[in-house]
Amino acid sequence: MAELFEVFMVVLFGLSWPLNIIKSIKSRTAKGRSIFFVICVMIGYLCGIISKILSGTITYVFIFYCLNLVMVGIDLAFLLRNIKLDKSLV
Q1: What DSSP letter does each residue of 60-88 carry, written as one string?
Q2: Looking at residues 58-75, what average pLDDT do you find?
Q3: What's the CA gap between 38 and 58, in Å, rounded?
Q4: Of all helices (H) and strands (E), which one includes residue 58?
Q5: CA-CA distance, 76 to 65, in Å (whole number)?
Q6: CB 62, CB 52: distance < 8 Å
Q7: What is the reported pTM?
Q8: If we measure between CA atoms, which residue out of 76, 85, 88, 7 comes closest to residue 37?
Q9: Cα–Cα distance measured from residue 41 to residue 33, given in angstroms and rounded to the nearest whole number
Q10: Which residues, in sequence order, are CB contacts of 65 under 8 Å at separation 6+?
């Protein structure tokens, strides 16, 4: 039962990242975004992945942690691009 709630948590968090990526692509600005926040989220997902590996509880939930980490990495790449674009406009 606990794993089911973990899946819900990871999937629901994961739903926000594609929307964030699309927003980053369209807006072409980093205004209102925090690189610190995105990096903290990435570290959180890395800790979840490491926890699954160390505890030996690699199940289908592991895939969602990895997928979310990839999406956050993509969002970080667009955030860095947008920071660079913002600086070039100044």
Answers
A1: HHHHHHHHHHHHHHHHHHHHHHHHHHHHH
A2: 94
A3: 25
A4: none
A5: 16
A6: yes
A7: 0.89
A8: 76
A9: 13
A10: 10, 45, 48, 49, 52
